[in-house]
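Hey Z.,

So I finally got round to the magnesium ion thing we talked about over coffee. Here's the setup:
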Amino acid sequence: MTEELEVVDPQELFQEFFKTEEYRQRISQMAVSDKTSLILNFEDLVAFDQKLAEKLSRKPDEYLRHADNAAYAQLQIEDPEFAEKIETKAETVTVRIVRLLETAHLRKLGSLHIGKLVMIEGIVVRSTPVRPMVMQAVFRCKRCGEITPTDQTGPFLRAPFVCTNPSCRAKGPFDFIEEESTFIDSQELRVQERPEDLPPGQLPRTLNIKLIGSEIVDIARPGDHVSIVGTVRAVAPTLPRVGKLRAFILHVEANSIEVLGKEPETVLPSPEEEEKILELSRDPWIHRKIMNSVAPSIYGYDHVKEAIMYLLFGGVPKTLPDITIRGELNALLIGDPGTAKSQLLQYVARLAPRGLYTSGRGTTAAGLTAAVLRERGGGMTLEAGALVLADKGIACIDEMDKMRPEDRVAIHEAMEQHTVSVAKGGIVATLNARTAILAAANPALGRYEPHRTVAENISLPVTILSRFDLIFVLRDVPNKEADSKMSEHILEIHRKGLSPVEAPIPLELLRKYVSYAKGIKPALTNEALQRLKDFYLAMRSASETEGSPVAITARQLESLVRTAEARARVALRKEVSAEDAEAAIAIMNRSLEEVGIDVSSSRIDIDLIMTGKPKSLRDKLHTVLSTIMEMERETGLVEKTALLNELEEKYKISTGEAERLIGQLLREGTIYSPREGYLKKT
Ligand SMILES: Nc1ncnc2c1ncn2[C@@H]1O[C@H](COP(=O)(O)OP(=O)(O)OP(=O)(O)O)[C@@H](O)[C@H]1O
Ligand SMILES: [Mg+2]
Ligand SMILES: [Zn+2]
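And the result:
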C-alpha cells in the first residue's frame, strides 16, 4: 500500500482548524493565563477534518509538530505580542490533545500501539517528585574550551562525539555546563487500572507515564483518577554488561493529563431505574429491604448488616472554614475464626462504588496508607496505599490487626482527618483518603474471651479503636437452636448452589441506589437533634453523678449524627427524623454493649474501649489486690480459699468472678503463686 500524496500541507490544515471561532478564542486567551499549552479537543478535530484527526492519532510525533507550528502561527496573528514573548524565552506553543474517541484498556496495550496516540484512564499509584530534565546540554571541551550545545533525547545524558572546534576535534573529555543548558520539568507516574475495568479475579496492571513540561507536571497525585493522552513508547531495558533486552517495556509519554471528577465514576441510572429507585425509597420497609440485600447468603448478623448499610450510604461531611468533619463511618468486626467476616468484607467491596478489599498488610509495598520507595535508579517515589486508592469509596480491610507498623502510626490521621501525610526522602505530600472503613480482625488469642476487654481481645491500640464509630463482636459459641438454623442455611447453599434467601434488591440496582442516595444531604430536624442531645446528656450525666469514667465522648456524638444521616439517606430523605435518631441510638447502644458495657452495673463504659478496662473491672481488680495486700500483712502468704471467702463476704464478689479476676492479675504478673493454693503480690 502506498501512502497517499500529501496534497495540502498538514500545518495549513491545522491552521484552518485553529481559525475556527472556538479555537481563535482559546488562542487569543493564552496570554491571560500566561500558558503555552493549547487544549485541543479531539472530538472537535474529528468534526472538522476526520482524515487529519486519524493521521494525528496514527503519527502523533509528526502531526503534533505540525499542530504546534500551526498554533504558533495562529498565535502570531491573534496576539503577536505574546507570540513574541514566548519566542524570546525559546519556547513555543504545545498543543495538548484531550478526549480521544475511545479509551484504550491498560491491559490491552501492546506492540500495535507503539508510536500511536492513545487515551488511558486509571488511578495514579505512584509519583516521583518533579525533576528538571536537560533538553539541551551545553558542554565545554577540556582541551580547547570550545562550547558545544547538544540536544538530548534518550534516557542518558550524552556528550558530543567530538569537539566542534575544527582545529581541536578531541573526543573529550568535556565538562557539562549547567548554567547554560536548558532544563524542563519532568515527572514520572505509575497508573493502575481502575477497579471497575478489572476482569474478575485478576491483579490490576500498571503503566508508567512520563510527563515532560512544566504545564503538565505536578497535576496529579497518588490516589487521583486521571485521563491521560499520550504516545506509546517502547524502551528496551538494559542489563549491565549484557546489553539491551529484546523484549521492550511500554510506557506512555503524556501529551495531556486531566484529573477526573473526585466522585466514583458511576453509571447514571436510566429513567426506568430512577423510577424504580424512587419507588423503593417510598417503601416504608426500605431499611429492612436494603439490610436484607446485604450478603443474603450470610445467615443472621442483622445488626452487622444494618451497620454495613449505614456505612454504604454514609453521613454528610461538614466543611467549615476552620475544620472539616468526616461523613464516612468506620466499623470494625472482631470475631472468632470462621464467622464469615472475610465473606462479608468481600461482598461489600463488590457492592460499594469504588470498593476495595485488602488485607491489613496491604497488597503493595505502600500498605494501607502510603510509602516512599527508593527506585532502582536511586530516586524516590511516593506510592499510594489502599486507603488512598479507595478515596471516596469503602476500604474493606481484613486482618486489620496485622497491619505494618508504619501504618499503625499513619492510620490515625487517615481515619479521622481523612488524609495521609508523607514527609520522607525529600517528598512532602498530603494525600486524600476520604474513605469509609469496614475492618475485620481476629481476637488476639484466637478466640474472643468475653471476660476480657476489647482492647485485650484485639491487638490494636485503643487510639485506633476509638476511631471506629461502630464495633461488633462476632462470637462462635455453640447454641443448639441457632446452630441448627445456620447449618440448614449453609447446607441449603451447598445443595442448591444458590442462596436460600433471595436479595430483595439485586446488587446492580442496589449499587445504583447507593450512588443516587449519595447526592442527598440530609439535615437534622429539631426532633432528631433533641433525641441525640438527650441521649448524649443522659450518658454524660450518668457518668458524672456516680463518679464513673466518661461514659460517652464527643466522638460518639458525631458517630450518632453520621449514622442518623445515613439512615435518612437510605430513604432518600432530606431530613433526619426522630426515628432516624432513635435507630442510630439503638445501633450505637448495641455496639457499645458488645464491647463496652459494664455488665455488673449495666452502664455504658467507654473507658473500656479507651483504656482497655471498664471502670468497675478496674475497681474490682483494685479491691482484689488490696485485699491480698491486707491479708499478706497478717499471714505472709495468702491462702486462695481464704481470699475467696473474704471477697465474697466483704465485697459480694462471687467465687466465679473472683477466680477470673485472680486469673487476670496472675496473667498480668501483678500477683504470683509461690505454691499451689497460695498467692502473693509481686
Ligand atoms: N452466618 C453464616 N452464614 C453463612 N455462612 C457462614 C456463616 N458463618 C460462616 N459461614 C461460612 O463459613 C466460612 C468461613 O467464613 P470466612 O472465611 O468469611 O470466616 P472469617 O470470619 O473470615 O474467618 P477468619 O477469622 O479465620 O479469617 C465461609 O465459607 C462462610 O460462608
Ligand atoms: Mg477471614
Ligand atoms: Zn576542543
